[in-house]
Structure formats: structure tokens, C-alpha cells
Amino acid sequence: MNYNNTDNKLSILKNKLQNKEIGFYEAISCFLDNIKANKTLNCYTDVFEEDAIKKARELDIRANKGEQLGALAGIPIAIKDNIAVNGKVNSCCSNFLRGIKANSDADVIKRLKAADAILIGKTNMDEFAMGTSNETSCYGPVLNPVDNTRVPGGSSGGSACAVKIGSCVAALGTDTGGSIRQPASHCGVVGFKPTKGAISNKGIVALAPSLDQVGILSSDTDGVASVLKILSDFSKTHVNKLLNQTIKVGIADDFLFEGMSSDIANTLDRAKDKLTHHGVEFVKVDLPSFKGALADYMILSYAEAAISLDRFDGIKYGNNFGGDAAYNRTKGFGYEAKRRIMLGKFFATDSRYEKYYLKAIGVRRRLCDELNEAFARCDYLMTPSSLMAAYGLGEDVSAHKEIAYSDMYTVLANLADLPAVSVPFGHDCAGLPIGIHFIGKHNADFDLLSFAHILEL
Ligand code: GLN
Q: What's the predicted TM-score (pTM) here?
């Protein structure tokens, strides 16, 4: 088979495998070839070639015997390098964990294995999931597959790139403030963060536990939903519930930020037109706390990250660089991790605990209340996924204010534990993908995906 990665859809591969148009080994070989052909993009930190081939051969034998196979039989899935796969390195792309293997599977990995999915490899990411560009990885940056001079977004940049190049059909990422949705938007794939708790986080290396959530990237919303069905306990009965009613989408005036590029603003308008054409109504909502949400996210996530990373000393935990804990931490952590640990400790200790941390908790609560009120008037909120399309590798962030604000929409869903998705919707004038971002109500994960599918029609 000449595998065509523009058609890299889970449903297509699944049908071909089920109808025996292609064998499991034959299919996995095509994906492994795509990994090799795109090596320079640096999106994998480890490729499970032998295991993947072994699993594919086993599936071929079981299929020939007429055995019942799992729901994701033969579907290649890539795994972000902060999600534990038994016996494989789980480095979080940090020198501190480089070479250290996990000794058990994360819950999501157990479920994928039980569904007969093929784990194809670990994907590159920002160190400890801290970043928006994948440039803080100890293995070097991932290149954007659409334009190799640009960043893929972060922190799950490797996962987004891996889906885009057709080296897997879906990938797992983690999202603390946008790390699935933002790279999905920059690479032109779908990125989904579920309702907090809908998928187990057990077995991921925590960044900021109150905000972290494992999620899914794939080429289309249907691919995401197929994997979500396996990873979550939600029943499919939610799907299409809303399609017979008028769907209302809320937009706050504040979402239309003055620094937004005209390409993003135009894309938003086009998405609005398309949804209106499909009978969707738009309402104005008020979210006064939106403007403070990004700062709130920074205080809370940095404070939590400082605590999560406290156990790294190179003696009981993490690689030893030949010194005491302070020396090992100096050598083990990269610049961004150190910056966040210092700021996180600053925000949450001594008199600053009340001034910053407690205040940030109050803002988070207020934001949740405002979102609840907004969701009494609408079913989904719509925003751009990011303020801008993918920027150049090595760009000076201090010279480009919008880069620092690029998570301003995505953090809302993490702060309020809500499900959210980024769906590719066209390109800017330079041909770079742009994503539209929808936030749904608690536990409306499948509804959100079927609603977002309208943009794919
Ligand atoms: N870009 C955000 C940050 O750097 C989000 C990271 C994430 O979701 N892990 O904090």
C-alpha cells in the first residue's frame, strides 16, 4: 500500500484493516517508514519499532484465526514522553530523567494495550511540559511539519507533528494550559483536552496537578472520539443529543484582543459564518475575569510546578550529576524549569502566599462562576486557539508580546476543568494552519466533539 498521509484518518485505517484490504504488519510498516522519512523533524524521542512489528504480526495471526480483536486493533498511537510506558524511557525531555525507564504503565497505556492499539513511540515535548514552542526539550526542538523554519507549538509539539506527518493515527499528549490544543492548531490537526478526570492521569509526570489533563490528538474529531471512547468511562449516549436543538455559542467581547492578527480575526469570522449556516446561534457572554486568567494560570501552575519538581534531587530521584542536591538540580533542570521553580516558590511562600497564591485561587473561583453563568446562556464558547499562527524557531519572545499571550484562551478550560478542542480551520496568508477553539460544559466531551465536527464538513 502506498500510504497517503493526507488521508491519515482513524476511521479509514480501521475499515481497511477490518475489511482485510491491508494487513496489520503491512500497515504498521507504512507508518514506520513515515517516521524514518521525517526523522529530521525530531518529533520522536524513541521509536518502538520492534514491539510495534511484533504486535502487528500477532494481530495478523489472531485475525486469520478469526479471533475477536480490540476496538483499536492495529491503530498506531504515539505517546508523549511524560506518560509512562512500562520498560520504556520516560524522560519528560529533561536531562534529569534522560535514560530512566518507567516500571509500570500509565492507566491510559493499559487501556490502549487492552484495546490492541499499537504503541509506536514516545514523542518530543518541552521539558516537563513547560512551554509553547517545544524548544525547551533536552533533545532539541521539533520542527513544524508545515514549515520547517517554524515551531510546532508546545508542549506536546512532538505529538502534533507525529499525527500531521502520518507516522501515527492518533497521539496522546498532556494539557496543563493549552499544551495539546496549541500545537494541534500550529500543525493543523485536532487537539482535545477532556473534562478534568474524564481520563485518568495516573502514570503521567505531573507539572501542575490541579490543571494537568491527558488528552488526544488526531487528524479529525472522529479519530479523537474513537480513542476517547477507550480511554474514558463515558457512554456514547451523549453523542448527537444536541443536534436536534438550536445550538448556542457564546463569544465574549474581550476574546477579540487588539493584538490578534487579521488572519486569525478573519478565520474566526469564517467559522462563525459556517456555523451560522448550520443553524448555530451566537450570543454575547460576559467574562470579566478572562483578562486576568493567564496571569492567574501562571501563578498557580508555577507554584504547583515548583512543588511537583521538589523531589528531583539526583539522589533519591532523577539522574545524579555527581554532586549534592543543589548541584544536581543546577545541572538537571533546563533554564525554563529553573525560571518557573524560582517564580513558583516566590508566589507561594512567606507573606507572598496570601498576596499571590491565595488571591489566584480566588480569581480561579470567580472565573469558574462566570463560566457557569455563561454556560447557562450557551452550549459552547468559541475563541481562536492561539493569538497567532506558528512563529519562527528561535524567535525572541520578549520582542513579540503576542507569543507570551498565546495561551490566553486555552488556559480557561484548565482553570475551570472543562473540555475543550482545537479544530483546524484554514490557513493564514503564509499557508500556516489556524485552529478554532471550543470550550464545552463539564462532561459534555462527546457532544463537544460532534459539535466541532461541523467545521470539518
Ligand atoms: N504553554 C503553557 C505553559 O507553558 C501550557 C503548558 C502545558 O499545557 N503543559 O505553561
A: 0.97
